[in-house]
Write a structure and sequence with these properties.
The structure is a single chain. By secondary structure, this protein is α/β, with parallel strands linked by helices. The protein has one domain: 2-enoyl-CoA Hydratase, Chain A, domain 1 (Alpha-Beta Complex). The chain is 51% helix and 17% strand. The chain has helices at 2-25, 42-57, 60-81, 100-113, 131-146, 162-167, 194-199, 224-248, 254-257, 265-271, 280-287, 304-320, and strands at residues 33-41, 85-92, 119-125, 151-155, 158-160, 172-175, 180-182, 262-264, 276-277, 292-301. The strands form two sheets. It has a seven-stranded mixed β-sheet with strand order 1-10-2-3-4-6-9, with helices on both faces. The chain has a three-stranded mixed β-sheet with strand order 5-7-8. β3, α5 and β4 (151-155) form a beta-alpha-beta unit. α1 (2-25) runs antiparallel to α12 (304-320) and α4 runs parallel beside α5. The longest helix is centred in the last third of the chain and has 25 residues, at 224-248.
Length: 325
């Protein structure tokens, strides 16, 4: 672990040196551009691809007939829906829930433009991370729910721990059969270098005000009292996690599901952790048959300094984050 840490420091120093040199020679490289909203009509995407296939494999008359039928269906759908639509957002979660920055801006736009009968679908992928970060992400989805917009979370691979904390806020959760769901629990892991420092005659001194300002440390000698205090804090967070789940999914048996375990989609459906089994692609394609489905993205163009900072942060997170099961 210590060698990996030293290698990480060398990597960061190299990146920072390269950044300083490049920014000095090319000042504009460090400037970020304001993100722009990108909107794609998924229904049109599906239809355009169908038309391409018809044009290639069907006789001209048959392809033309199908195009006309498709156009009539589009007009009928627009008449029935009255302009309402399903907004689709993507959330790719990391340990810091970094995607919450763009998520909150997209939700701002939806709330400003919403109409009656509009809905929101979130394609969510996350194995969890920092408690406060995922609490904020869940609060963003709660804004939609409180505004009267039905929210559906679509999970193709994983919604665990903080990821499930977010998903639970939605009125409906749809997961693919082999998605990993649950992990309603809390974990803290801290490496400790105290014995290594002691063997090398290195003193570590830490000064705090407040009995529990720092319970466990990286370099100091941890006490049983400090460890027990950390366990108590984790238990309190776990309790709040369960209270949120109980508020929005009261049908769950928390004694059964709030054990920190995660289950595949089929079992998660049986336990009530999800409401339906389907891939996000299948769900959205069906939705596009009766509603307008708009995919919203922010086209952010970070400056060089931001890119380098992100790379450094990802390297650091990768050093301390264990691989998902």
């Amino acid at each position: 672990m210590f060698i990996a840490y030293l290698l990480f420091l060398v990597e960061i120093a190299t990146v920072l040196l390269a950044a300083v040199l490049l920014l000095r020679w090319w000042p504009r490289a460090g400037k970020a551009k304001a993100p722009t909203l990108q909107i794609e009509d998924l229904g049109k995407r599906y239809e355009e691809r169908a038309i391409q296939l018809w044009n290639q494999r069907l006789p001209k008359k048959e392809a033309r007939r199908r195009r006309k039928e498709l156009k009539k269906a589009q007009q009928e759908r627009a008449r029935k829906t009255g302009g309402s639509c399903i907004y689709v957002l993507d959330f790719q979660g990391d340990i810091r829930a970094s995607a919450v920055t763009s998520l909150r801006q997209l939700i701002d736009a939806i709330l400003a433009a919403r109409q009656e009968q509009d809905q929101v679908a979130i394609r969510l992928e996350s194995g969890g991370g920092m408690v406060n970060a995922y609490g904020l992400a869940a609060a963003q989805l709660l804004r939609l729910r409180e505004a009267g917009l039905p929210v559906t979370v679509l999970v193709d691979q994983v919604a665990a721990s903080g990821g499930y904390l977010m998903a639970a806020v939605a009125q409906r959760i749809v997961a693919s059969p082999f998605a990993l769901i649950g992990s309603i629990g809390v974990i803290a892991q801290v490496p400790n270098f105290h014995r290594w420092l002691k063997e090398h005659n290195v003193d570590f001194e830490q000064f705090t005000a407040g009995k529990y300002k720092r319970t466990v440390t990286l370099f100091g000698e941890n006490s049983d009292e400090g460890r027990e205090k950390l366990r108590q804090e984790l238990a309190e967070i776990h309790l709040q996690f369960q209270e949120l789940i109980a508020r929005y999914r009261p049908q769950l048996d928390l004694e059964q599901v709030a054990t920190g375990e995660a289950w595949l989609g089929e079992k998660a459906l049986q336990l009530g952790l999800v409401d339906e089994l389907a891939s996000s692609d299948a769900w959205l394609q069906r939705a596009a048959e009766h509603s307008r489905v708009l995919l919203l993205r922010l086209d952010a163009k970070p400056g060089l300094a931001q890119k380098l900072g992100l790379k450094a942060r990802q390297a650091w997170d990768g050093l301390w984050t264990p691989p998902l099961p």
